[in-house]
Amino acid sequence: YTARTAVASHSTRMSWLVPLSLVLLVGVVMGAGHILFVRWMQRTTAPEPIADRASDDRGDEALIPLTMIGLEVTHKAWLTDDHADLLRGTGRAGRFVAELLDHFVGFHQRRFGWEGGPIHDAVTIAHLIDPTLVTTLPMNVQIETESPLCLGRTVADRWSVTGLAPNVAVGLDIDRNRFVTMLLDHLSALP
Q1: Which pTM does this prediction carry?
Q2: For residue 79, is pLDDT > 50?
Q3: What is the distance between the alpha carbons of residues 88 and 100, in angstroms, rounded to a whole number?
Q4: Is position 75 annotated as part of the catalytic site?
């Protein structure tokens, strides 16, 4: 069961989103995950897919480039109490986000001992705005469907051990400073 099959299954049920130009899978890679965000828009140019035409289990061709940004990346994209304080004085939206961060950052500090809280979904949007923020590598990605212990686990073949062609661009790292600057600039500009 491939990541493309999962996307084809979801996009068939949500035909009103088509045509898709890119699908981002977040919260996956080394552990269980699911499709969290789908970007839909009319294509102005035809981007090259990550891999050659791949067929899902029903024989449908999937030509949508897939990018997967896992927790290994989003856990590097965190905000702190200082960021919340900066946003607090920027307007209504800034105050609202600061209050959310008070809870979210505090939870991660207490629960995990982290300096801040990861901002998973914002990484997805930031990647759509600036694809150079996240370093990716083409890999073959499969979704485990047989194991009773690992059902739904996303398996990324970073070292090409399986010999299968890459079918997903997998996020490896993020330029955290650029991400935080972009996020704070956008949030600070809101009323």
Answers
A1: 0.70
A2: yes
A3: 11
A4: no
Type and span of the H or E element at 104: helix 92-112
- Preceding peptide of 19 cis, ω within 30°: yes
Beta-bridge partner residues of 62? 54
Between CA 1 and CA 106, with CA 131 as vertex, the angle to 5 degrees is: 85
Q: Which residues contact 17 (CB under 8 A, 6 or more apart)?
A: 11, 38, 40
Could you read off the pLDDT of 8-32 as tens digits, one per residue? 554 455 454 445 556 655 555 444 3
Tell me the two tokens of residue 78.
């965190």
Distances (CA, A) of 102 to 18, 74, 82, 117, 154: 38, 19, 10, 10, 32
Under 8 Å between Cβ of 122 and 108 = no
82-127, pLDDT tens digit by residue?
999 999 999 999 999 999 999 999 999 999 999 999 999 899 899 9
Q: How far apart are CA 76 and CA 70, in angstroms?
A: 10
Catalytic residue (one of 75, 103, 108, 120):
120
